[in-house]
Amino acid sequence: MRSSHQATLWSVTLSTLSIFASLTVLFVLTTPLQAQNSEQVEVGPPPVHRIAPPTASASARELEAVGDQLEADKNFLDAIDYYEAALRKSPSSAILMNKVGMSQLFLKRYKNAIKTFERAIKADKTYANAYANMAVVYYQQGSYTKSIKYYDKAIQLDDTQAVFYNNRAASEFVKKQFEKAMADYNKAIQLDPEIFERASRGGGVQAKLPSPADIAHYDYVLAKLFAQNGSADRSLHYLKKAMEEGYPKIKDVYKDAEFSALRKDPRFAELMAAKTVAIQE
């Protein structure tokens, strides 16, 4: 484990409210957390610097702490300035490079982020979070095979992070590798039973799933996972979502072994008897 520099982690979850699934990014710092389709693209104002530049007398630790707060406040340009100032005082810090890359990723400067994460990996080839964040960039760009490759390496280096499995599962799901995705989601839940709830409360950007049918399938997979892990409430929640999304194989719930205990719950019978109608977008 790294000392006071808590690793920066991204978590990707898929929302099921529309044919666009929310790809939620959740990160952990030493400080508190914090396009839609149209014929016209709305362009927001460019990011601006909001505070004074870093002072030369500040230590690397002090500069990093300010950068962390600025990133938590979503002042990403200023955060980059402070992280880079800290890097000038501690030029071999893979952790600082990773934090610069995170801010660049938030600004959707993907080419810059890739170069920065490459620097972090070169500085410390055992730094799992730099590989994981590189994977996020490739996910955002739709390069799911590359994303999986980098998550593989991150998990090889650190197999205790639920977010790594959760994120890799998202890429696998988009590639329709459902069995692999289910195994990774299951591992993520075992490591962190609250991972879906925590991630869903984070800020996010949107990414298009292959089809509405895949969204429904995703809900069914989560229902199965939570049933398998003994979480009846969550399982019923996602099972209802799968029905609302029109999952065509919903009757499999009567034969899939993972639902054997849930089928004894009176609420299961009520849900199935209600025959929830698919919600039309």
Protein architecture, described:
With 281 residues, this protein is mainly α. Helix content is 54%, strand content 4%. It is built from 12 helices and 2 strands; from the N terminus they run βαααααααααβααα. The chain has a two-stranded antiparallel ribbon with strand order 1-2. Helix 10 packs antiparallel against helix 11. The longest helix is centred in the C-terminal third of the chain and has 17 residues. The chain is elongated, with a radius of gyration of 21 Å.
Topology at a glance:
Layout: E1 20-24, H1 60-72, H2 76-89, H3 94-106, H4 110-123, H5 128-140, H6 144-157, H7 162-174, H8 178-191, H9 195-200, E2 204-208, H10 212-228, H11 232-244, H12 266-274
Helix pairs in contact: 1-2, 2-3, 3-4, 3-5, 4-5, 5-6, 6-7, 7-8, 8-10, 10-11
Cα-based radius of gyration, to the nearest Å:
21 Å
Structural class: mainly alpha
What is the 3D shape? Answer: elongated
Number of strands: 2
Instruction: Return the average pLDDT rounded to an integer.
Output: 81
- Low-pLDDT residue intervals, each spanning 5 or more residues: 1-7, 11-43, 202-208
* Number of DSSP helical runs: 12
The SSE order reads EHHHHHHHHHEHHH
Side-by-side strand order of the widest sheet = 1-2
N- and C-termini, Cα separation:
46 Å
Helical content stands at 40-55%
The biggest sheet, with number of strands, parallel, antiparallel or mixed sense and barrel status, is: 2 strands, antiparallel
What percentage of the residues does DSSP assign to strands (E)? under 5%
